[in-house]
């Protein structure tokens, strides 16, 4: 099992072109605190009374774009199901590492690192033979 956060591979139900290439999946890297802060800055605006308002949906779209190496416009063009899948992938990163690994393996099986599968298999083999 992995002891750190790994990028998550999200398969898109509707392929969308990015940089003139159809994308059938996006890879979301683990977020940093600075990623979240930066996206909140991009999603904020100053109101008429001078107060600052953070549009959470806009901030999230900027965050997902940053974490997938795409653009805010691209994220906005995704089918809502695909956008929701990005939200599920992001939610995995909010869990402690052991829970992250289990949930990620369940929701995004294509993201499980090959070495972790083989090490789990060897643990199973050792437990049945030893």
Number of helices: 6
The amount of beta strand, in percent, is 15-25%
Instruction: Give the overall silhouette.
Output: globular
The arrangement of helices and strands along the chain is: EEHEEHHHHH
Oligomer: single chain
Q: Which regions contain 5 or more consecutive residues with pLDDT less than 50?
A: 114-130
Head-to-tail CA distance between termini:
20 Å
Helix content: 40-55%
Task: Provide a quick synopsis of the model.
The protein has 6 helices and 4 strands.
Structure commentary:
The protein has about 130 residues and is α+β, with helices and mostly antiparallel strands. About 55% of the residues lie in helices and about 20% in strands. The chain has helices spanning about 35-40, 55-70, 70-75, 80-90, 95-105, 115-130; strands at about 10-20, 20-30, 45, 50-55. The strands form two sheets. It has a two-stranded antiparallel sheet with strand order 1-2. The protein has a two-stranded antiparallel ribbon with strand order 3-4. Strand 1 (about 10-20) and strand 2 (about 20-30) form a beta hairpin. The chain is globular. Mean pLDDT is about 85; it is low at about 115-130.
């Amino acid at each position: 099992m992995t002891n750190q956060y790994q990028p998550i591979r999200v398969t898109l139900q509707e392929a969308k072109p990015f940089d003139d290439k159809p994308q059938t999946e996006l890879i979301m890297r683990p977020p940093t605190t600075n990623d979240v802060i930066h996206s909140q800055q991009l999603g904020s605006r100053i109101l008429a009374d001078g107060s600052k308002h953070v549009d959470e949906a806009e901030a999230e779209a900027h965050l997902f774009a940053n974490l997938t190496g795409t653009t805010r416009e691209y994220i906005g063009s995704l089918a809502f199901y695909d956008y929701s899948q990005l939200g599920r992938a992001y939610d995995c990163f909010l869990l402690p590492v052991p829970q992250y690994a289990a949930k990620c393996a369940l929701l995004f099986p294509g993201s499980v690192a090959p070495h972790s599968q083989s090490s789990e298999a060897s643990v199973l083999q050792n437990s049945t033979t030893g």
